[in-house]
Amino acid sequence: MAKYGMSMCVLGMAEEFKPDGIAVNAVWPKTAIYTAAMDMLTGSDSSNVCRKPEIMADAVYTLLCKDSKSITGQFLIDENILKNEGITDFTNYACNPANKDKLMMDFFLDDNNILDSQDKKHSSNKTNNGEVGQVERIFIAINENLSNELVNRTGAIYQFNVKGKEAGVWFLDLKNGKGAIGKGEPSQPADATLTMDSENFFAMFSGKLKPTAAFMTGKLNISGNLQKAMKLEKLMGNLKAKL
Fold first, then answer.
1. Which residue has the higher pLDDT, 84 or 120?
2. Do 24 and 50 have their domain in common?
3. 242 SS3 class
4. Which contiguous run of DSSP H or E holds residue 228?
């Protein structure tokens, strides 16, 4: 069942069973939880930025111990539930305790997935006036961040098929030399090809849209090596402050 469908069930069932003293609530994770799905989507390294499923179990257990008439029809976050019980140290819930402050936020709690109307208007005006568009600004910023270290760490060639107002094909070579970018297809086969709308492309590289959330919600289509595609997330983090 889709997340929206589950949310509607919570609201409907909470009202239906309230006269019987039965509570129905939804619990959401604040951070990504390491499961087989995360392993498949982003590789085993994703455990370094995830929490263990135990935090969800403890949060739900806390709810089950409460009077069912005291809370129902609510959408609650695991960490907040436990904080209300006096828990302040969540280190042990991290798969890698050393990264407890560098965890990936949950995909469905991000309210900045879509550019606001002012951003869209700005993007459209720049393109129509023949000035540098949002997408080209991204690649200019990427070019300024190219380095041997980045190439050695990534080892992949990417092709970007951008649709919408700033449609075009771009490539990013992080496998050879000091790296390179350019318009058109790469001279060597791409390890991963990413296809998305230009506005979502800018939102993703400027930190307003999480890559994994974009992929899981259909805003980003990836063909080729998925794990190498996910390596771009660190590059996006470096660009955020420059856009």
1. 84
2. yes
3. helix
4. helix 226-230
Q: Please write the tens of the pLDDT for every residue from 107-163.
A: 776 544 323 333 443 344 344 444 568 888 888 888 888 888 889 988 999 999 999
What amino acid occupies position 199? E
Position of tokens 């791409």?
190
pTM listed for this prediction: 0.52
Do 80 and 11 lie in one domain? The reply is yes
d(CA 149, CA 169): 25
The residue segments making up the domain with residue 68 are 3-109
- Give the C-alpha separation, 90 to 188, whole Å: 46
DSSP string, 151-195: HHHH-EEEEEEEEGGG-EEEEEEESSTT-EEEES--SS--SEEEE
Any residues with CB less than 8 A from the CB of 162 and at least 6 apart, and which? Answer: 135, 168, 169, 170, 195, 196, 197, 198, 201
- Counting every residue, how long is the chain? 243
